[in-house]
Write a structure and sequence with these properties.
The structure holds two protein chains of two kinds.
Chain A: H1 2-10, H2 13-19, H3 29-38, H4 44-56, H5 70-105, H6 110-123, H7 127-141, H8 162-199, H9 202-209, H10 214-251, H11 257-267, H12 270-298
Helix pairs in contact in A: 1-12, 5-6, 5-8, 5-10, 5-11, 6-8, 7-8, 7-10, 8-10, 9-10, 10-11, 10-12, 11-12
Chain B: H1 5-34, E1 40-41, E2 57-60, E3 64-68, E4 78-86, E5 90-94, E6 97-101, E7 106-116, E8 121-131, E9 146-148, E10 151-156, E11 167-176, E12 179-184, E13 187-192, E14 196-206, E15 211-221, H2 226-255, H3 261-283, H4 285-306, H5 322-327, H6 351-387, H7 389-404, H8 407-418, H9 423-433, H10 436-449, H11 453-461, H12 465-501, H13 512-521, H14 532-559
């Protein structure tokens, strides 16, 4: 896709910008060796071409900081981020649709106003701050959960035992709760609005006139149509959710992609940043593709051409 | 539902890719973990604490290494952390988090001894591998480009950095009055009493003996005249007044009077419509609550510089740009709140006062970033929607890129590359990353508007592209983007706090995000008594964002009548 191409175009210039403006009068062997190693003294189109070919051949460069291939450094992180994001997005999806339904059914009543109000409250909350508040509450005041990390440090997740699984779960609860509560509000609001929209259509009146109960109308007639915007929104919001995950990981020192990103920025570790950008772009593209496919399944009017 | 065969195929492919990827990652994690070795020493009774010094470390000589023992656990609470280093003899540091610099390469063992309230103890030893520092540092001389004769010029090299290690020596070097001047230190000052151009060199050396030299040009000039100082504002006002007078003259030539009857009628109509919108707006509960919240914070801004006494002990940076402070009413600071309500942080800065002062910068960032991203989004949307064709295609692809990259990552990277983190750069970063949604909305609206009859008619009469865009299409887009604009303010404030929290916010003003960052960096999150330091600025962010969101939603309901029946 053109989109991905543009992404590559943006990225390779980063190290050059920061590293090249140096004084020629003081040549230092160490520096130039590094330049040679990083390939920074090639012209930009050579670098672009190298980056392009290497990306597709699976060689994503070597981290400046760790001196190890990027994929090795980030392999674990991707798995942990997937775990965190997967759990929280499933929870978000289910609870968001349920709450949205309730709010739309009781439109204008106290339930609706409180759900919408709280939804907006959480919508306007910086995720990192909410994470900190949860941390203050459940780690320092009432120590229920461990303060950070994905599991007790020094342990390895494989071979997996029951005890370790419990450990991982207890480390996952707080970040996951933060992410879920932080992002559920958007889904609730969209679900409510689209349901309210659908509920004013004529065919709903017809359904009621046929003598169906409210439950039946909601399940068979209203929800399938109201679900469509949610799918598109989730796909569009992937980038946003990733941003949230980064903040959460930073707060709980959950060593996923986000934590690595912030660490890499701190250390100016460009190959890692490049790879994370790449992953982010790919994730968004895949999410959009999935959303299109799901839409095809949900909406008979949409067909693959 | 029967699936399209092609669709089923693509799902299968995707599933296979996902399975392969997860297998790869699983294999990888196993490899990654086997290298992590932990050694725990000491005997443990039933109520003993468990020391945890973090994993083994591999660092560069000269690096400021952080040792974090806060994941040590105990049932009654750990009272004492002692870190022991065997580096040139025995050294000890105390505290859950300790910093230490190893200057020479080699292997060192570091022992953490934790003691709990019952005098039980446990130790944990980790090995720190110190590699020689071979990567040179980066010299960043920060010198003003030009200065006046007879002023004290500050040469600031404190932002020079070293990958991993730390810089041990800063040397400034320049020729002044035919003599070599050498100054030492990260920040030095020098009186320049002669005009001329100077090349100021900064050499930084790190612990491993690597060094880097860079120079900047410094021009010392005669004192600037009034004209030289104000030429930008003079230019601005001349252009502005010129445009206004041109408009007035043209109108006068066309209509023979300045205000025609139609104008009065138009104005009346607008006012009437405005009143109606306001009535509808204030009738919604969201509108009312949002208005109250925002007015409260605006009052806070007004009060913060007029009534509140500034904290004498604080060495806090100024809270808002100078021009903004001048706009506010005369300062007559009588109320002294220092340390009264929420107390002061570890550096002696009052949390409440910082929060109140932070309101200004946060709101300024919110409004200006909104204006920037809205302006950009509207322009781009208008252009791509109206012209269509290849221009539309190109613009929309760029837009796709901005939509698809995680905004936070993009923002962080732009901010990190930019390097200069002041108010305006942060505003630009937020504005530039926030325009894509607006552009989409505007484009969609323009696409439907440009096929309407009034645009056709205008074209038939012979109106130009710009005229149609400015007088026919733009006014019809405004109600749509107005609500969106208010929501954008909220998002901008949120983005700013996130950036600041990650240490990439403006360094020259105090914002809420910065207050939060300072609190977090001081480890407030794990001290229950100080948790208010986090909660107060955070609640401010939440409420301001909530206020703007409420107003935005209420406006949306009022301005877009299709939604009104809800």
């Amino acid at each position: 896709m053109i989109l991905n191409f543009a992404l590559f175009r943006i990225m390779p210039s980063d190290p050059a910008i920061l590293m090249t403006p140096r004084d020629p009068n003081t040549p230092e062997a160490a520096y130039w060796r590094n330049v040679e190693r990083m390939g920074l003294n090639d012209s930009w189109y050579v670098q672009l071409w190298e980056y392009f070919t290497m990306t597709f051949s699976g060689d994503w460069g070597t981290s400046y900081r760790y001196d190890r291939p990027v994929i090795q450094v980030l392999g674990n992180s991707i798995a942990w981020t997937c775990l965190l994001l997967g759990t929280s997005s499933i929870l978000t999806f289910i609870s968001g649709i349920m709450l949205g339904k309730i709010a739309a059914m009781r439109r204008g009543k106290v339930t609706d106003v409180s759900i919408t109000g709280f939804g907006l409250f959480f919508y306007g909350m910086p995720i990192f701050w909410f994470g900190l508040v949860l941390m203050v509450m459940f780690v320092s005041i009432w120590p229920l959960f461990p303060p950070g990390g994905y599991m007790t440090s020094g342990e390895t997740p494989f071979p997996l035992t029951w005890h370790k699984l419990k450990d991982i779960a207890s480390h996952l609860i707080l970040p996951c709760a933060t992410l879920t509560i932080g992002s559920v509000a958007g889904i609730v609001l969209i679900m409510r609005n689209s349901l309210v929209d659908v509920l004013t259509e004529d065919y709903i009146v017809t359904a009621y006139a046929k003598g169906l109960t409210e439950r039946q109308v909601l399940r068979r007639h209203a929800t399938p149509n109201a679900r469509l915007p949610i799918v598109t929104t989730i796909a569009m919001d992937t980038a946003f959710i990733l941003g949230g995950a980064f903040q959460v990981e930073y707060i709980f020192s959950y060593r996923g992609l986000g934590w690595e990103t912030i660490f890499a920025i701190d250390q100016q570790d460009f190959p890692i940043l490049q790879f994370i950008f790449f992953i982010g772009g790919v994730a968004v593209v895949i999410a959009n593709l999935l959303a299109d496919l799901v839409l095809v399944k949900l909406d008979p009017r949409v067909t693959i051409t | 539902m029967v699936l399209d065969p092609r669709f089923r195929k693509s799902i299968m492919t995707l599933a296979i890719v996902v399975i392969l990827l997860s297998l790869l990652l699983a294999a990888n994690s196993q490899v990654g973990y086997s290298s992590l070795i932990m050694r725990a020493q000491g005997t443990q009774g039933p109520t003993d604490p468990v020391a945890n010094a973090g994993g083994n470390k591999s660092v560069i000589a000269g690096a400021n290494v952080m040792f974090n023992g806060s994941s040590s656990t105990d049932d009654v609470g750990i009272t004492n952390f002692t870190w022991t280093f065997y580096d040139n003899g025995l050294k000890a540091l105390y505290g859950a988090i300790a910093y230490y610099i190893f200057w020479s390469p080699g292997n060192y063992s570091v022992t953490l001894n934790v003691t709990d309230a019952d005098e039980n103890w446990d130790t944990d030893t980790i090995t720190v591998t110190v590699r020689p520092d071979t990567f040179p540092p980066l010299s960043v001389p920060r010198v003003p480009k030009d200065a006046q004769v007879g002023t004290l010029v500050t040469l600031n090299g404190s932002t020079s950095r070293d990958v991993g290690g730390s810089i041990v020596n800063y040397t400034w070097n320049f020729t002044y009055d035919k003599e070599q001047v050498r100054l030492y230190g990260p920040v030095v000052t020098f009186w320049f009493n002669e005009t001329g151009k100077y090349k100021v060199w900064l050499t930084v050396t790190d612990g491993g003996g690597n060094s880097d030299t860079k120079y900047v040009n410094l021009t010392i000039s005669k004192p600037v005249t009034w004209l030289g100082k104000h030429y930008i504002s003079l230019l601005f006002w001349t252009i502005f007044l010129g445009l206004v007078s041109w408009f007035v003259v043209r109108k006068y030539l066309r209509d023979k009077t300045l205000i025609t009857k139609t104008d009065i009628d138009k104005f009346r109509l607008t006012a009437k419509r405005g009143r109606r919108v306001w009535k509808l707006f204030i009738a919604t509960w969201m509108g009312r609550v949002g208005m109250v919240i925002i007015i409260f914070f605006l009052l806070l801004v007004l009060l913060s510089h007029t009534v509140l006494k500034e904290n004498p002990k604080s060495n806090d940076i100024r809270c808002a740009p100078e021009w903004w402070v001048k706009l506010l009413p005369a300062r007559n600071q009588t109320v002294n709140l220092t340390g009264k309500i929420f107390g002061t942080d570890q550096v002696g800065r009052d949390v409440l006062i910082r929060t109140i002062h932070g309101t200004q910068a946060s709101l300024i960032i919110g409004f200006t970033a909104m204006a920037l991203s809205m302006g950009l989004g509207t322009l781009v949307g208008l252009a791509s929607g109206y012209w269509g064709g290849w221009r539309d295609e190109v613009i929309m692809r760029i837009n796709d890129v901005f939509l698809s990259i995680p905004w936070l990552v993009l923002m962080i990277v732009i901010a990190a590359i930019w390097g200069r983190q002041n108010l305006s750069s942060v505003i630009v970063v937020i504005g530039v990353t926030g325009w894509s949604t607006t552009a989409r909305i505007v484009r969609a609206q323009v696409l439907s508007l440009k096929t309407r009859t009034f645009v056709e008619r205008s074209k038939a009469v012979g109106a130009g592209e710009w005229h149609i865009m400015a007088t026919h299409i733009f006014p019809n887009v405004v109600p749509l983007i107005f609500a969106n604009a208010i929501l954008t303010i909220a998002i901008s404030i949120l983005s700013e706090s996130t950036l600041s929290f990650l240490g990439l916010g403006p360094q020259d003003v105090t914002t809420w995000g910065r207050v939060l960052e300072d609190a977090y960096n001081q480890g407030v999150a794990l001290v229950p008594a100080q948790s208010l330091f986090l909660i107060v600025p955070g609640l401010c962010i939440v409420f301001v964002v909530l206020g703007f969101t409420f107003i935005g939603y209420a406006m949306d309901e009022v301005l877009n009548p299709k939604l009104r029946r809800r």
